[in-house]
Amino acid sequence: MEKLVIIPTYNEKDNIQRIIEAVMGLQENFHVLIVDDGSPDGTGAIVRSLQRTYPGLLFLEERSGKQGLGTAYIHGFKWALANGYQYIFEMDADFSHNPADLPRLYRACAEEGADVSVGSRYVKGGGTRNWPWDRAVLSYGASIYVGLVTWLPVRDATAGFVCYHRRVLEAINLDAIQFVGYAFQIEMKFTAWKLGFTIKEVPIIFIDRKEGYSKMSKGIIKEGVFGVLKIQSQSLFKKYHRRVAARQGTAPEQGTVSK
């Protein structure tokens, strides 16, 4: 058990089987964890039926009601650590993230020295397709805004296509992550950077979803705008401590962020 792809879902019946089959079709032996927030459209039932096809490779965690993207990933991260995975991935269910790019994110961490690899729209070779102009401007503007406010050296700080080495997730106090929407992705990268981990951006082409509907809302955008200010202001009063390596035969100690 080495590589786990976490896919949060809410009403993704149009995409879920195809995205699972696409990941399972890769040669690199990725496992998949679906974290479903009680989708009323039957997404969870589709995943349960596919578990018979992919025994020991496909897992499902079902939660009651829509609780937010960030809490879904935190749930998945804890599950991945408890089950011994070394490389833990975030990916959307709607094919805006191409499963064929997963091996490149993996190699960036496993072979090229990164602790975190980010599928980036805003480095050379990256880009977007099928986006309305207003969303493209909003997304690119958000990345510039994050950099100006936080100094985070990541061009695509809001990206949700990410690979974490387990040591990063062990070092972050996951229970202290505050945001659940747009700002969640920024907060995770910012915390990893403040803890001294190496982040590498891997160029990807982001393709707007063809099936289902976007989960973006005014509330999520608002969280992103004001959340960035909160993340930076709070960081001025915190000390970030790297995880202390565990002694052989003992559980790893989790890193802390203290005031």
UniProtKB/TrEMBL annotation:
Superkingdom to which the source organism belongs: Bacteria
Pfam families per the UniProt record, alphabetical: Glycos_transf_2
InterPro entries xrefs: DPM1-like (IPR039528), Glyco_trans_2-like (IPR001173), Nucleotide-diphossugar_trans (IPR029044)
CDD domains registered for this protein in UniProt: DPM1_like
GO-annotated molecular function: dolichyl-phosphate beta-D-mannosyltransferase activity
Domain Glycosyltransferase 2-like as annotated: residue spans: 5-171
One cellular-component annotation, GO: membrane
One example of a Gene Ontology biological process annotation: glycolipid biosynthetic process
Keywords: Glycosyltransferase, Transferase
PANTHER family, per database record: DOLICHOL-PHOSPHATE MANNOSYLTRANSFERASE SUBUNIT 1 (PTHR43398:SF1)
Recorded family membership: Belongs to the glycosyltransferase 2 family.
Protein name, as recorded: Dolichyl-phosphate beta-D-mannosyltransferase
